[in-house]
Specification:
The structure is a single chain. By secondary structure, this protein is of the alpha+beta class. It has three domains: 156 residues, no CATH class; 37 residues, no CATH class; 123 residues, CBS-domain, CATH 3.10.580.10. Helices cover 57% and strands 13% of the residues. A four-stranded mixed sheet has the order 1-11-8-7. Strands 2-4-5 form a three-stranded mixed sheet, with no helix packed on it. The longest helix is centred in the middle third of the chain and has 34 residues. The N terminus and C terminus are likely disordered.
Length: 331
C-alpha cells in the first residue's frame, strides 16, 4: 500500500511538481550566474547609452541589480546550492537513494547547468532584464547570509568594478571593428586611422611626427619669384612654404602660396618683399597634443622643431634658433 501511495497518490504528483520547480529554479540561478556576471558594468553602461532601443531598455533594468556584483553572485550561488541540495531529498521519498542520486545528477547537469547556461550565454541580456524584479526579491531574502560574504569578498578582492580599456587594448578593439579586419566591423579605413592616430597623440612628441628638413621644400629669402620658382612652388602643391636665410636649417618664417597669386613672374619680386609670416618653434620633446592645441588657436599650421640645446643668433631683429632642423605640419 505504501508503494502504491507513492506511485498513485496526490503526494507523488506534489513531489514531482516540487522536483520540477527545483530543477527549473536551479537552472535559472545557474544561467543567471553566467549571463549576468559575464556582463561588465562598462558593457552595460555602453548598451544603456548607445545600444539598440531594446538593448537600452534591458541594460537599464539590469544595471541596478549588477552594480553590487559580489552580493548578486552570493545570492545566485546560495539559491542554486539550496535548490540542488533539496532535490535529492524529494527524490529519495520516491525512489531508492542510488536512483535519487543518479536522477538528481542527470537533471541538474542537463536542465540545471548545460541548457540554462547555453541559453543565457546567448540571450543573457533579455532574460536578465525579464527576471530582474525576481532577482531583487532573492537578494532581499538572502541578504542576511549573502551580505556578510559579499563584504568579505569586497575586502579581499576589491569591489569588482571592471576597469576601462587600456589605450593599447582600445586601439586593438578599434582595429577589430575596421571593415578590413574581416570581422564584420563597420568602421572604414579612414575612421580607424583617425581614431588610432588620436589615441597615439598622448604618447608621441614633436620628434616622432616631424619631417626632416632635408625632405621639405623651402625657398631662400633672397630668391627671386621668377617664372621658374613660381612654377616650382605650384608643382609642389603646398599651401605654405617655409622661408630660410643663408642655410636651409635656418627657417625664419613662411609664405602663403595664395598671397603669390597677385605677383607677376616678370617682375621677379624678391621673396623678402612679400609677406613672411612668423613660424613658431617647438622643442622636439613637446607632446603632440600641446602642439595641436597651439595650432587650434589659429596662429599657425606649421612649426619648426628644434633641439633642447639649441643656440640663437641675431637675424632680422629677432633671435632665432640656428638648428631648426625639421619642419612639422599637420596638413
Amino acid at each position: 500500500m505504501a508503494v502504491e501511495y507513492r506511485c498513485c497518490g496526490t503526494g507523488f504528483f506534489l513531489h514531482i511538481s516540487i522536483i520540477a520547480l527545483l530543477v527549473l529554479f536551479a537552472g535559472l540561478m545557474s544561467g543567471l550566474t553566467l549571463g549576468l556576471m559575464s556582463m561588465s558594468l562598462v558593457d552595460l553602461e555602453v548598451l544603456a547609452k548607445s545600444g539598440t532601443p531594446s538593448d537600452r531598455k534591458h541594460a537599464l533594468k539590469i544595471l541596478p541589480v549588477v552594480r553590487r556584483q559580489h552580493l548578486l553572485l552570493c545570492t545566485l550561488l546560495i539559491c542554486n546550492a539550496a535548490a540542488m541540495e533539496a532535490l535529492p531529498i524529494f527524490l529519495d521519498s520516491l525512489i531508492s537513494a542510488w536512483g535519487a542520486i543518479l536522477i538528481s545528477v542527470t537533471l541538474i547537469l542537463l536542465f540545471g547547468e548545460i541548457i540554462p547556461q547555453a541559453v543565457c550565454s546567448q540571450h543573457g541580456l533579455a532574460i536578465g532584464a525579464a527576471v530582474a524584479p525576481f532577482v531583487r526579491i532573492l537578494v532581499w531574502i538572502c541578504f542576511p547570509v549573502a551580505y556578510p560574504i559579499s563584504k568579505l569578498l569586497d575586502r579581499l578582492l576589491g569591489k569588482g568594478h571592471e576597469a576601462l580599456f587600456r589605450r593599447a587594448e582600445l586601439k586593438t578593439l578599434v582595429d577589430f571593428h575596421g571593415n578590413e579586419a574581416g570581422k564584420g566591423g563597420e568602421l572604414t579605413r579612414d575612421e580607424t586611422t583617425i581614431i588610432t592616430g588620436a589615441l597615439e597623440l598622448t604618447e608621441k612628441t614633436a620628434r616622432d611626427a616631424m619631417t626632416p628638413i632635408s625632405e621639405t621644400f623651402s625657398v631662400d629669402i633672397n630668391a627671386k619669384l621668377d617664372r621658374d620658382l613660381m612654377k616650382l612652388i605650384l608643382e609642389k602643391g603646398h599651401s605654405r612654404v617655409p622661408v630660410y636665410s643663408e642655410q636651409e636649417r635656418n627657417i625664419i618664417g613662411l609664405i602663403l602660396v595664395k598671397n603669390l597669386l597677385s605677383i607677376h613672374p616678370e617682375d621677379e619680386v624678391s621673396v623678402k618683399n612679400v609677406t613672411i609670416r612668423r613660424i613658431p618653434r617647438v622643442l622636439e620633446t613637446m607632446p603632440l597634443y600641446d602642439i595641436l592645441n597651439e595650432f587650434q588657436k589659429g596662429h599657425s599650421h606649421m612649426a619648426v622643431v628644434v633641439g633642447q640645446n639649441s643656440h640663437t643668433v641675431e637675424h632680422s631683429g629677432s633671435e632665432l634658433p640656428t638648428d631648426g632642423k625639421h619642419q612639422f605640419s599637420p596638413e
